[in-house]
Amino acid sequence: MNVFATIAGVVLILAVLLDAFETVALPRRVQRHFRITAWFYRNTWRPWRAITTHIQSPSRRENFLAYFGPLSLIFLLMLWAMGLILGFALLQYGAGEHVQLSNEPITFGSLLYHSGETFFTLGYGDIVPTSRVSRFLAVMEAGIGFGFLGTVIGYLPTIYSSFSRRELQISLLDAHAGSPPTGAELLARLGNSPQQRLLDQVFRDWERSASEVLESHISYSPLVFFRSQHVNQSWLGALTAILDATALAIAGVEELSIEQAKLTFAMSRHAVVDLAQVVYAQFDPGLPDRLGAQDLWQIRQNLAQRGLRLREGPEFEEKLASLRAMYEPYAQALAKRLLITLPPWVDSEKKRDNWQAGPWDRLIQAKSLGGPPTARREQPVEEHF
After folding, report:
1. Domain boundary among 92, 127, 153
2. Buried b (16+ CB within 10 A) or exposed e, 110-149
3. What's the pLDDT tens digit per position in 96-119?
4. Exposed/middle/buried for residue 190 (C-beta within 10 Å: 0-12, 13-18, 19+)
5. Which DSSP state fits 310?
6. Whole-model pTM?
7. Inside any domain, residue 46
8. Which residues form the domain of 382?
């Protein structure tokens, strides 16, 4: 018996099974000095990010980044499978006593092949274990392989179900806060609605959505790398927009109730802080300030046009700065790590919301105006409500 091969096989199998269990079945994040999944994502995301620096078009760059999440999930499952196959091949090599039907000598390469066909339960029978130990190992590997395939079949639908729920709430934010969504636009559109019911309902929905994002992205960490369907949407951008809106409301919007805003801010901040740790985002004090004095003045003007007024004085600005300091460093670190563009506090350009854009809009508009397609005038967002 080869003792070294046996010990190496046991260690490798236990490491893979433990990592797969913690990633797929254990609904919490486990801190260890070394995890196969964490090592895998650190060493695959870096070169993927590096490639994107050579893509000039923002839409093509985003499309390229969108491939990483699903592909990484597939390759992670393949890595686990190869680790188990190699581990059992080492155990079979240590156990010895195999017979090959063609009477060829048994090598480690042939045992690796035998381990692969046993793991996937192919059962060609061209290599036969003859000792009790090797037969026991073959049966154990077949059982683990069958269970592994069953786990994968159940894991993928769970991942995509969580992704679908996340994207549903992000899409609903489009008409509420613009594309990309901004906190100031959310307050401007909904802050002066009768009795503030609609704004509080959006905040209430996002309190729950933030908790679902936190739970699902910690339980299934590959979801962090899954991009949204639209280039100008992302789970981090939506959370940041909600945090911006609730921070403005808490800091001081006259005649605006802040009870629900406080709850939503707390849950959204919790999600951003914890997920920054999941992806090992690093604090960068050199990142630019998202809200300048000119931006704050523009927010005041935009809200005043919609019937909302921000409080004046240093107390308001200090409170807003204090609230921003609680989440912006984490959001910016996440954005830098994941190559996600955070929404601005103020969008200086008038843009159509995603629901207003369509492939035939230019032709339809030109036909209705009786002019060529290029003569179409862009409609402000407000005119569609």
Report:
1. 153
2. bbbbbbbbbbbeeeeeebebeeebbeebbeebbebbeebe
3. 777 666 677 778 888 898 899 989
4. buried
5. B
6. 0.83
7. yes
8. 360-385
